[in-house]
Amino acid sequence: MDMGPKIKMSLPSFSGHTEHKPQLLKYSCQIECRVKPTSPARVLGELDRKHTYESQNVELNEYTNKGELSRSVMLSKPILAFEFNCLKMEVEPPVVVSEGSHHPLEQGF
User: Fold this and answer.
1) Each residue of 7-45: pLDDT tens digit?
2) Which of the residues 33, 67, 77, 83 has the least number of beta carbons within 10 Å of its own beta carbon?
């Protein structure tokens, strides 16, 4: 069974800068896995009624139901599909990037 090549990625992730957690925290995540191209999953379903010529120009933030957008993405034609095996992930403790403010909206966030 071909497992594909081994890859390593380092991904930054951020959290905080909210009313309850004013500090901005950065997490470092190291991922190691084997990856190979595969056939895309087949998703069966009816295209959403909002996909008419008239509604194609509607901006994403104007969707009334976010589930409709998710279904549209799942039913769209896939570009690439990958299979991930032997996944190993390590997340380091967070580092404070910014002490922030108790009022994040005042800083434009």
Assistant:
1) 999 999 999 999 899 999 999 999 999 999 999 887 776
2) 77
* pTM over cut 0.70: no
What is the distance between the alpha carbons of residues 77 and 40, in angstroms, rounded to a whole number? 9
CB neighbourhood size of 75 (10 A): 14
Q: In sequence order, what are the beta bridge partners of 90?
A: 30
Same domain (yes/no): 3, 33: yes
How many Cβ atoms sit within 10 Å of the Cβ of residue 28? Answer: 14
User: What's the domain count of the chain?
Assistant: 2
Question: Which residues constitute the domain of residue 29?
Answer: 1-41+83-109
How far apart are alpha carbons 80 and 43 in whole angstroms? 15
Same domain, yes or no: 70 and 100: no
Query: Which DSSP helix (H) or strand (E) runs through 67?
Result: helix 66-75
Looking at the structure, do residues 67 and 31 belong to the same domain, yes or no? no
